[in-house]
Specification:
By secondary structure, this protein is mainly β. The protein is about 10% helix and about 35% strand. The chain has two domains: about 50 residues; about 325 residues, Neuraminidase. Helix 2 packs across helix 4 and helix 3 packs antiparallel against helix 4. The longest helix is centred in the N-terminal third of the chain and has 10 residues.
Length: about 375
């Protein structure tokens, strides 16, 4: 069939063909055939499975950041990377489906930026100048949804949100006198969920501004002497809370110039994460249960939307029943007086509680502040 006949293929037939394409790369190739193919393909983009995540790092002696894709052995190699037009001096406080939430320090504004499509959307001026943004999460992809909501968590206390079409931010108020800061947030089932630094979860309907504690609350049976952090993630439509426990021995945060030379012997000494505890909210029993097996799923935690991916969704590129984590404790480490966050990264096995490195080769030579961020490279 000649190219002109392909271009004149009826849109209904073309739609049936394209909706069976699950590989984002193949989808992009179809979109590049001609304008008619692109218009049909665009309608089916939102149904594509998530592209496999990569990691954005700040290399030493570089003014810009690198993107490193996940390899077929479920790890990363720092010699395979792509340069991004993201300054190391701009704060990346969130990432979702190819879009980054950036605080541009030189111009004092916050925006959404897709480094793969080069698209950018400005957000309203931050609601207060004396509070720094710790983390941002998105309700949906800005590529498809103009009603997308951006929720920001401040380094101290408080949170605020806005839609892409808003001119200002709305503060989220906590009706139950929450004296601690927020650790993570999640959009699920038309509601906003946030978890504070002590593992307590609050929620409100999307569009409302008053958070209330959920009932019942998950157990908080952890030692007050243990350092910890919390995340919220959706797994098959259910709410999960993840507790991340840290070692008290965090010497490498103080000694950033003490670089190890023997990768095999010392790589894990840079990891102060010791354990993850996972809990699931049960709708049927209205309670919380401990989860020790994620089945065919893996979690990705860090300075991005906390996400859950199926091993089948990304073609076996990830390892099931694992938690991939990066170092996102800028707020916590600075409160304790540490100077150099960023090195606490790895892959946690839910079965035997072991931790393996993210990279197949020595990665400490690549790392510098600011810390790494998970990025899903969807170029639209």
């Amino acid at each position: 069939m000649s190219s002109s006949k392909w271009e004149n293929l009826h849109s209904d037939i073309l739609s049936e063909i394209i909706k069976k394409i699950n590989n984002p790369c193949d989808h992009i190739r179809c979109s590049s055939i001609c304008s008619s193919w692109r218009s049909v393909a665009k309608r089916h983009r939102r149904n594509l499975p998530l592209s496999k995540p990569g990691i954005m790092l700040s290399p030493r002696r570089s003014l810009y950041r690198n993107f490193i894709p996940l390899r077929h052995n479920s790890k990363f190699r720092h010699d395979v990377h792509h340069d991004l037009d993201i300054s190391r001096f701009d704060t990346c406080c969130g990432s979702y489906k190819g879009w980054l939430v950036l605080v541009i320090q030189s111009l004092s504004f916050i925006c959404l930026h897709n480094p793969f499509s080069k698209r950018r959307r400005l957000l309203p001026t931050l609601p207060t100048s004396d509070k720094k943004v710790y983390k941002a999460v998105l309700s949906s992809s800005p590529s498809f949804d103009m009603k997308c909501i951006v929720l920001i968590l401040f380094q101290t206390k408080g949170a605020a949100f806005c839609r892409l079409t808003d001119d200002s931010w709305k503060n989220l108020e906590c009706g139950d006198c929450c004296y601690s800061g927020f650790s993570d947030a999640l959009f699920l089932g038309g509601r906003i969920y946030v978890v504070d630094d002590y593992g307590r979860i609050y929620a409100c309907n999307v569009g409302d501004t008053v958070l209330e504690p959920i009932k019942p609350q998950p157990s908080s049976d952890f030692s007050k002497m243990v350092r910890y952090k919390f995340y919220l993630v959706e797994v098959q439509g259910q709410l999960y809370r993840i507790l991340r426990k840290f070692s008290l021995d965090e010497d490498f945060y103080y000694n950033c110039d003490n670089m190890y030379t023997d990768y095999n012997d010392h790589v894990l000494s840079r990891v102060v994460t010791q354990e993850f505890r996972v809990s699931r909210m049960e709708r049927a029993t209205n309670g919380w249960v401990s989860v020790h097996n994620l089945g065919g799923y893996a979690l990705f935690l860090g300075c991005s939307n906390s996400i859950c991916l199926s091993e089948l969704e990304v073609g076996g590129m990830i390892k099931r029943n694992k938690i991939y984590f990066t170092d996102d404790r800028q707020k916590n480490t600075k409160h304790f007086g540490f100077d150099y966050p960023g090195r606490d990264m790895g892959i946690y096995d839910m079965m035997d509680m072991s931790i393996e490195p993210l990279f197949t080769d020595p990665w400490y030579e690549l790392m510098d502040d600011p810390p790494a961020v998970w990025v899903t490279p969807l170029p639209w």
